[in-house]
Amino acid sequence: MTKGFERLSMDQRLERVRVLAVVLLLTLMGGLGYFQVLRADRYVELASRNRLRLVRLLPPRGVITDVNGAPLAVNVRTFDVKGYPMDLQKPENRKRVVELFRRKGFPLDEATLTEMVEKQYVAPYRAVSLANNLTLAQVADLVADPEFSSLLFPFPVWRRVYPAGALVSHVTGFVGEITREELESAADARYQGGDGVGKTGIEAFYEGRLRGDVGEEAVEVDSRGRRLREVSRREPARGEDLRLTLDLGAQRVAAELMGNEKGALVVLDVQDGGVKVLYSSPTFDPNPLTWGISSREWNDLLKDPARPMMDRCVSGTYPPGSTFKAVTTIAALEENVVSNHTTVYCPGYYTLGNRTFKCWKHSGHGSENLLEAIRDSCDVFFYQTGVWLGIERLLKWSAILGVGSPSGIDIPGEASGNLAGPAWKKKRFREPWYKGDTVNYSIGQGFLLMTPLQLARVYAAVANGGHLVVPHLNSRERFPRKDLRIPQSGLRSLQRGLEEVVRSGTGKRAGAFGVTVAGKTGTAQNPHGDDHAWFVGYAPVERPRFVAVALVEGGGHGSSVAAPLVGKILSYLVQHDRKGGTGP
Q1: Rounded to the nearest 10 degrees, what angle do helices 325-334 and 488-504 cross at?
Q2: Is 577 in contact with 545 (CB distance < 8 Å)?
Q3: pLDDT bucket at 47, cuts 50 / 70 / 90
Q4: Are 456 and 468 in contact (CB under 8 A)?
Q5: Got the DSSP string for 19-54?
Q6: Is the distance from CB of 491 to CB of 506 less than 8 angstroms?
Q7: CA nearest to 387, candidates 441, 425, 432, 423
Q8: Residue 204, Cα to own-chain centre: how many angstroms?
Q9: Which residues are within 8 A (CB) of 514 and not within 5 positions of it... i.e. 6 or more apart?
């Protein structure tokens, strides 16, 4: 009986062992199936992360040149020092890297290093940059240190250089490191932290073309992260080159003419709107901004009272003064308010109700017709014309000629100016529009504000027979002009008046440089100091090719200060155009 019980107990224990063995075997097989079949891709990826490293290959940006091929923005080779987040996330490795950089004279601490890695982090095996724009000598010194090769590696990169420096900085703009906000708004896989991106000017407007396409290199490394071999490589695609309409030689002349004055010089091709000169003074050197400046230096630049970062050509808005009389003339002729034979007597002032508006010539001009009023810039003639015309018709023709609207130039930051009428005044000041406001508008004063570029566009339409052009810098793009359908008889009357301005009127100093010029002087009130000086002119008169605008902030009289600037720059361009030196 006892032996039978013992045998049964033994059999039960053996059965349990067999069941346990089967369960363990099934569990093992299930685990193998799960890890080797269902999760195989995941663990292959993890293994690859330990074995493979990916390095982004940034493309060289497209080169920017002037109309004659002179380089305005090019690329040079420098070196970045890179590392992998999976290595740099370890405290002991961060400490070694910081000590290495300090030994070589690079200021760095662990907090800054951690921030740099986090900012550029995409994946643990994708390299990030720790130092940029190093020379070959600097890299050689770093590489010679025993601590370098185990954690870091040098990487050749392209950096932007602007050979013309401050001369064309408002045109080219500059490239800077992409910010977190820009990265989030870009929604473009080509960008990541640490990349360069166009910030202003042509660099920003044509970023998509100049940028190119990023390449990638996959390399196999050993257990210590040392490179063994290249696994694959996709070459980066170079960005598109851009040839501008800008003439660097004329831009240099403009800079010399402006000297230390604040203001702007703009020159357009009257037929197609190609920008030949776009010079804003004062200016800045874009090279330090691209290669990196401190936050203090950047703030100093932004807070500079001279505002060198502002492009006065496209972003500065000013009362146009008497240069606006061309718009008043076109509106009055088109609305049949005046004709070539209309005369107004100028005693030196104009009375409207209980207000008196003075002419610039206090003794008066006497009886003047339209041509004489344009020639002599008689304020009283245009005061009366503005009242006859009325604000609504004046605003209508101003808008047709592009006043109060962006011109469409292919650089960012263009201002619209201010073509304010009765509705605007009512909303802004809770006041009605008075005839006195219209009187001020008729000579380019009051609430009216324009950019130098807008004014150049108006006079280009006068010079080319009534076509509104789109100012542009990209020579390979075609920008259609708009036919304003202005009768040639009216335009010819205005053109004759502008010719007389330079031949025998207030703008004689513009015609003293060997080329025939037609144009208009302007002196605009400045609430912050001396009056602004304007002159707008086109040349040659017999076959207009270029229109130029000069604005000198606080310069005083346009006839003496701005007119010679326009005459000289037009003379330069016309003479070079005859020799075939200003491009297409």
Answers
A1: 150
A2: yes
A3: very low
A4: no
A5: HHHHHHHHHHHHHHHIIIIITHHHHHHHHHHHHEEE
A6: no
A7: 441
A8: 5
A9: 571, 575
3-state helix, strand, coil in the chain (%, to 5): 40, 20, 35
In this structure, are residues 276 and 469 in contact, taking their beta carbons and an 8 Å threshold?
A: no
* Strands of 532-539's sheet in order across: 275-281, 263-269, 546-552, 532-539, 518-524
Alpha-carbon gap, residue 31 to 466, rounded angstroms: 83
**Cis omega (within 30 of 0) for bond into 540:** yes
Active-site residues, by number, are 322
Distance CA 78, CA 133 (A): 5
pLDDT of the residue at 4: 56
Residue with tokens 């109309």: 67
Q: Which helix (H) or strand (E) holds 241?
A: none
What is d(CA 439, CA 350) in angstroms, rounded to the nearest whole number? 10
Distance between CA atoms of residues 155 and 134, nearest Å: 10
Chain-centre distance for alpha carbon 263: 18
pTM: 0.83
Helix (H) or strand (E) holding 482: strand 482-483
Tokens 């060997």 belong to residue:
514
User: Rounded distance, CA 439 to CA 380, Å?
Assistant: 9
Residues 243, 249, 252, 254: is their CA dihedral positive or negative?
negative
Type of residue numbered 475: S
Cis peptide before 544 (omega within 30 of 0): no
**Residue count of the chain:** 584
Model pLDDT for residues 447-470, shown as the tens digit of each residue: 999 999 999 999 999 999 999 999
> Identity (one letter) of the amino acid at 363?
S
Rg (CA), the chain: 35
> Cis ω on the peptide bond leading into residue 282 (within 30° of 0)?
yes
Contact 167, 102 (CB under 8 A): no
Please write the tens of the pLDDT for every residue from 211-244.
Answer: 999 888 887 776 555 667 777 888 889 999 999 9
CB 549 within 8 A of CB 521: no
b/e per residue, 96-120, with b = 16+ CB within 10 A?
Answer: bbbebbeeeeeebeeeebeebbeeb
Measure the CA–CA gap between 206 and 202, rounded to whole angstroms. 6
